[in-house]
Description:
Helix content is about 60%, strand content about 0%. The protein is mainly alpha-helical. It is globular.
Amino acid sequence: MTVINSYEDIMHQHRSTPWRHGVMDEVFPPEVRAQVLAAVSQGTPLKQVMEKHGLSDEVAYGRARWDGDWERQLYSALLDGRNPDLRHGRAWTYAKYRCRCPECQATQPGCTAAQRFLQQHRPAPARPACG
Ligand SMILES: [Zn+2]
């Protein structure tokens, strides 16, 4: 059994990655994740849905940094639920309309998760037909 001598020991233990992921499953369990995806894909802002469950939207984005499946599901839901009347992929839409779809998020500096999602999942632009 590990003897905990100091605050540093506790922090060291608790900072281990498996521990943190286990805690994340407790605070943000699969059934809550499913509800969040359903609401977001119907157009409810992620922040609002997460707050309903007593969580910050950072919890959802944080999980996307290490859980590839969740990342795909989350950004797909954000894409499905975005307002079709807006022009996406613009910083203006992000700021003025608070759109958090991957295309608008990708306009923000440091938003690598959204950019990565788009690179992997956005269909390639149709090539002009030859001849
Ligand atoms: Zn958007």
